[in-house]
Amino acid sequence: MSDACWWRGAVIYQIYPRSFLDTNADGVGDLPGIIDRLDYVASLGVDAIWISPFFKSPMADFGYDIADYRDVDPLFGTLADFDRLLAKAHGLGLKVMIDQVLSHTSVEHAWFRESRESRDNARADWYVWADARDDGSPPNNWLSLFGGSAWQWEPRRGQYYLHNFLAAQPDLNFHHPQVRAAILDSVRFWLDKGVDGVRLDAINFCFHDRQLRDNPPKPKEKRIGRGFSADNPYAFQYHYYNNTQPENLAFLGELRALMDGYTDVAALGEISSEDSLATMAEYTQHHRLHMGYSFELLTDDFSAGYIRDTVQTLESQMTEGWPCWAISNHDVERVLSRWGKGKPVVPLANLLTALVCSLRGSVCIYQGEELGLTEADLPFDALRDPYGIAFWPQFKGRDGCRTPMPWSDSANAGFSDGTPWLPVAEEHRASAVSRQEGDSHSVLNGFRAFMHWRQSQPALRWGDIQFIEMAEPVLAFTRSFQGETLLAVFNLADATIDICVPVNGFAEALSGHGLLQGTLHDGQLRLPGYGLWFASLQPSDIRGATSSFHHTTVERG
Q1: Residue 467 shares a structural domain with residue 445
Q2: Structure confidence at residue 504 (pLDDT)
């Protein structure tokens, strides 16, 4: 299994280049900074890195508005720097995935600059253009995720163009075969360079409804989840027509055919649809994407029932594909603030790492998660994110999870000799890498211990998953692979609890993971607050997946 495809069961460390390490004192992280810290990343025990966009861009959305798919923005370095990064990562045994933003470009992209000039140029139909209604209003009611209409007027053509995100991010017209060919050629450029995979941003947004039908309204009680707040008007609609169109399936087949021409590469799709789990299953079956991930575990709900139901729902639908899970990324509040709510950092941080890395699938870990970083609380005048600026103060945007990586407890946390593009969070200095390296009980060393231990557990990397019915706040399941069965039990609360474990006979506790371990005595498992228990079982030892864990709260941990 491990020799056949590196990405199955892999832990992928996400690097947000702007905030990782600045080597030229301009306040912005760069590719040489990533190169300088690759030894650190390799020491974490992860399998791969995913680098957020570093391509040429005016940075309206900090790199997710691409002006040239095949060049590095001077802010981050050069193509030669990327080649050096790729070579060093591979020398350290790390695979390299890069972001590909296929559904839209920057307004500064040469394709758009030509397309907007007239209705009869060579690229006139490369973007989504539409006439105004008789009263001059946009052609339909589609909304931008960043607020307001998804249509922007262009006087050169006397038409509106579609932008599902910022007005500076016009949507490509994927119904046009030349657009699809050009996009695939751009992906080919990076595969030829030797990247091991691509993370596909907003991959379900490539196609739009040709008829431009209005999206229907959504009831107030349904305006939750999916990575945006309920007070965003984007949440007021069912987005049936501006994304997730059936034509996208054939394009994913074309993309997979391209990737099949290379050895051991993978495509990971980010999916946010009206039913993201169903779309994940659909997009990863019939030889389309290798993996998919969604926002289902990037929400505020930190209950055992929610996590279990989410994974079970996906498992029931994903009969062919492979999931990828994430509990943090560059777009959402950091998980220790979102799920932790100020709880004890070290045991909870380590528990969250172990939990997400024990689910069936691959995992994306966002930079700083291994340090137990919390969300930075930035004042309005420090914000850079247009999303947060537009929705302040109810929604503060994405800057709080994008502040510089703390390498030391110096003035700029060792991130830059200049003025950082976002301020360093004062509280992050205490969690700096230099402060944690020598502390055997730190979040960082707990993270390393677990990751290296996980590499020796085939059941956790590649096994099937079966949940065991239980009451809150306990999450329990088995992972089984080639005759080996592993039981994983997690206490999601800070109180010590006793559990009646439904096992018969042999249940050997597994050590070496370095985390807060429970103890078993006469069939009673005592789990400390934010503790866990890993055990090796014989296949017949679990008394059915519907068995209950009966427990009582003992004391606060």
Answers
A1: no
A2: 61
